[in-house]
Amino acid sequence: MPWPAFPFPAPTQLPAHAPAVNWRRRGQAGAVLLLVLLGHGWLIGPVHQPMGRAPEHTPAIQLVTLPPAEAPQLSPQTTTAEAESPAPPPPAAPQQLPAAPEPFAPPDTRRSPPDAPIDWTAGPLAPEAVAGTQSVPPDEAASAPTAPVPGTVASAQASDDGGGRPPIYTTQRPEQSFKLDYRIERGDDAGTGQLSYELRTGGVFTVRFSGEVKGKAVTDWVSRGFFNAAGFAPQRMVERNRGVETRAVNFQREEGVITFSSSSRAFALYPGAQDRTSVLLQLVAIAQAEPGGLRAGQRIRMQVAGLRGAVDEWTFDVVGDERVEPNGTPIPVVHLQREPTQPYDQRVEVWLAREAGHLPVGLRFTQVPGRGSEAYWLTSPLPAPAPASAASTGRP
C-alpha cells in the first residue's frame, strides 16, 4: 500500500538540520521555565514580609530588671558545691494590669431630708436643744433683786443712749377684760376683725387678734402670759388656722431666750420683749401710765418677735394728737407710727383713744415697698374706763 501524502517528510527521512531546530526549542522552553520560577519566587517572598517591605521601625525589646536576691545563709551542713551552685531564680510575679477607672458619678445635689419633721405645734424647747442658742443672762425683769427701775417714756428717752437693750417703761395694765370689733379695709375688699383681752385670776392674760375678709381668715393670733416689772410678759404666741395651731413663738424667761416652733434659731430675751399681738396691749399700758399722756416727738422702743424665726426692735414715734370718727362718733386719739427697718417689712400705725384707757381705735399695716395696706377701724362702742390702778412694778 502506498504511503499517504503528508506535508512533512516521513520520520525516517529527517532533514540534516533537524537537531539544531530541537535545541533552539529546548532553550526557549528553559527560558520560559526560568521566568515562571522567578515569578513564583517573587510572589512567595512577601509571606514573611507583608507587601514585600521591611518594617520601618524595629520593635523595641523591653528589659525587666529583677531585684537582686538575698544571699543565702550557709549552714555548717551546707557543702561548698551546694553553696557555689547558683540558686534558681524566683518565679516572676505576674504583671498587674492597671485597675479600670471607676465610672464617674455626678455629685448628689439633692438636699438631705431633715433628721425629724418640724413639729409646728411644739412647745418651748430647752436652750441646749435649740441650734444657735447663745448663753444670755436671764430676764432681769423676772428677777426682783436686780430688776431695772422702770421709767416714764420721757425719762427713758432722755437717758436712752441707743444701746442694744430697749428701755423698760412704767406700765399700767387694763384691769378689766374687753372685746373690740373692727371693720377691715383691705383694698377694695372689706371684712371684720376683733381684738379681745381676757384677764384671769392671778394676773394671767390672753390676747387674741383675728380678722376675716370675704369669708377667709387673714389673721388669727393668740398670746398668753403674765405681768412683771416691764409690763406684759408673753410666754407663748400661736398662729391658728381654722382653730389649729400652726406656728408658735416661745419666751423662755428662765433661760433668757426666745425660740420658735418653725425655726431652730434662738435670740436673747430682753426685758419688755413682746410678740406681734401683745405689743398692742403693751402700747396701751405704756400710754396709760405716762403722766399727762404721750406727746408728739416721744419715742418707744421694744423688742418684738414674729412667728417666722425673727426678732427685731420696733421703734414707735408719737406723731401727735388727732381726731378720728371710725363709727360716726369723734374720738380724740394719739397717733403712733413704726417705720420698717428692712425691705418688705411693715409700717405699723396705731390710734389710741385718750379718754378710754388708750384702747386702740384704729390699726393700719402697710407693706413696704408696696401700696397694699390692711386697716382696722373700730365699730363697737368703747368700754367705760375702769378705775385706775397702780403702775406695774412686779408680778401681782
Could you characterize the architecture of this molecule?
The chain has a 15-stranded mixed beta sheet. β6 and β7 form a beta hairpin. It has 396 residues and is of the alpha+beta class. It has four helices and 15 strands. It has helices spanning 18-44, 80-84, 153-159, 278-289, and strands at residues 178-186, 189-199, 205-213, 216-228, 231-241, 244-252, 257-260, 266-268, 274-275, 299-305, 311-324, 331-338, 345-353, 360-368, 373-378. It has a domain at 127-378: YmcC-like fold (Beta Barrel), CATH 2.40.360.
Q: Which labels suit this protein?
A:
396 residues, alpha+beta, YmcC-like fold, 15-stranded mixed beta sheet, 4 helices
Q: What proportion of the residues is helical, as a percent range?
A: 10-25%
The proportion of strand residues reads: 25-35%
Mean pLDDT: 76
CATH architecture of the domain at 127-378: Beta Barrel
Q: Would you identify the regions where 5 or more consecutive residues have pLDDT less than 50?
A: 47-52, 101-146
CATH class assignment of the domain at 127-378: Mainly Beta
Summarize it.
The protein is an alpha+beta fold.
Topology:
Elements: H1 18-44, H2 80-84, H3 153-159, E1 178-186, E2 189-199, E3 205-213, E4 216-228, E5 231-241, E6 244-252, E7 257-260, E8 266-268, E9 274-275, H4 278-289, E10 299-305, E11 311-324, E12 331-338, E13 345-353, E14 360-368, E15 373-378
Parallel strand pairs: 9-10
Antiparallel strand pairs: 1-2, 1-15, 2-3, 3-4, 4-5, 5-6, 6-7, 7-8, 10-11, 11-12, 12-13, 13-14, 14-15
